[in-house]
Amino acid sequence: DVIHRSFTSGDKVDGKALDRSRDIATAIYFDDDQKLKVYLGTGPPWSKSEIQRRLLEAVELNSLKCLDVLCKKYESEEFSMEEDVVLFYRRYGLSFWPLNERPKETALHVLASKLTSTNAIEVLKRKRKFLTDFSDVPDSHGSTPLLLAIKCNNIEVINELLRAKPDVNKRNRHNESPLHVAALNDHDHIIREILKTYSEPGERTNLLEIMKNIDGKGNSILYSASQSGMTKILNLIMEYDWWKDCLEQQKKSKEQDWKSVVCNVCAAGCVCEGLAKITCLERQKKSKEQNWKLFVCNVCAAGFEGPAKIICLERQKKSNEQDWKSFVCNVCAAGCEGLAKIILQEDSGLPLKWEEEVTPLMRAAEANKQEIVRLIFDIKADRDLFTNCDKDGRNVFHYAVKNPKVLKFFLDQFEKVGVTMFL
């Protein structure tokens, strides 16, 4: 095992060389930089392969003093990135991962995937040559250090790697790229750092082209960002005004991918009005009537204020009065405060327009949605809220009887509006 890991193919192995290799490994294990310096200054010269392998070991073991010594040794050598780069299996840990399935890596790959790499990155920052030279070198599976750092959300390492301006679109064998993975995980802080790094006009133009085909399959960043179910990247796209270009590209994608973007933007609750309106409303209105109704219902059930305002209200208000009233009641019973606020602010008298019917206030009281109950009174407190009865003669107090907090709120409001009535 030591021979396999300590010598590259073609090296002649003898007893003395093997002992020396073990002694060097021991020095790194115990972070004995003085002993390591002795081995660097005596005996046969170190090969470029061995320098790289020992750097990887020092990072694995967090042997910071030895890492500093090895970085100096690396800087003293002439390296060709085309001819001298060698990849290695990690020596420690990962025993659960079969050797033939693991990638061969560099020290920076190990650093990128270690969550306790803050001190090691400080050493490499002081000796930047190795960090700069190897920042874009892929492992045997095609993953760059930046890609691994983004997967681990390893911010310190990401920031230092970006200073070397690596390729943010370099793909591994699974078709993953740094920019793509950041978008999938809604890491807006990483995208912002990339934008800060690649700030020249030509670099920004190139980034936009990458974002328009971020997965290499014709899908834009809208598709990847919406898959996370979160909104930070979507809002960032709106902030930088890329959505028009990305949207035009996305419209050219497969019909199924386009539908996925529409649904995911709404499911994420994206409050970007322009994005929601264009991705959802203009396209979805052209669908079958049944699909449109299902689309409207799903957005409303999720209670997403931005898309709901644009997609639901304008369309729903055109329905017959009974359907509209049912819609309003369901929103209040579900506790969708944002959507309820929009509806009630547009027509403050709406809760009073029920005659011998179950009102939105009754539905909210029965469902114990205290925030909706308060909202209705905040917008317009009126005696008719108490006097309205359903077809069985029941008023809001009957609906609130199982919910003491709502009932107490009604009693307080009842006194304020000065209602005289028999309960």
Descriptive notes:
It holds the Pfam family Ank_2. InterPro entries: Ankyrin_rpt (IPR002110), Ankyrin_rpt-contain_sf (IPR036770). This is Nucleoside phosphorylase. The protein has 423 residues and is mainly α. Among the domains are: 1-162, Ankyrin repeat-containing domain (Serine Threonine Protein Phosphatase 5, Tetratricopeptide repeat); 168-286, Alpha Horseshoe (Serine Threonine Protein Phosphatase 5, Tetratricopeptide repeat), CATH 1.25.40. The protein is 61% helix and 0% strand. The protein has 27 helices and no strands. The protein has helices at residues 2-6, 15-29, 33-41, 48-60, 64-75, 107-112, 118-126, 128-133, 145-151, 155-163, 178-184, 188-197, 201-212, 221-227, 232-239, 243-251, 255-267, 273-284, 289-302, 305-316, 321-334, 337-346, 360-366, 370-379, 384-387, 396-400, 404-417. α10 (155-163) runs parallel beside α12 (188-197). 37% of the residues are buried.
Task: Please describe the structure with a list of short key phrases separated by commas or semicolons.
Serine Threonine Protein Phosphatase 5, Tetratricopeptide repeat; Ankyrin_rpt-contain_sf; Ankyrin_rpt; mainly alpha; elongated; 27 helices
Short note summarizing the structure:
The chain is mostly helical and 423 residues long. The chain contains 27 helices and no strands. Among the domains are: 1-162, Ankyrin repeat-containing domain (Serine Threonine Protein Phosphatase 5, Tetratricopeptide repeat, Alpha Horseshoe), CATH 1.25.40; 168-286, Serine Threonine Protein Phosphatase 5, Tetratricopeptide repeat (Alpha Horseshoe).
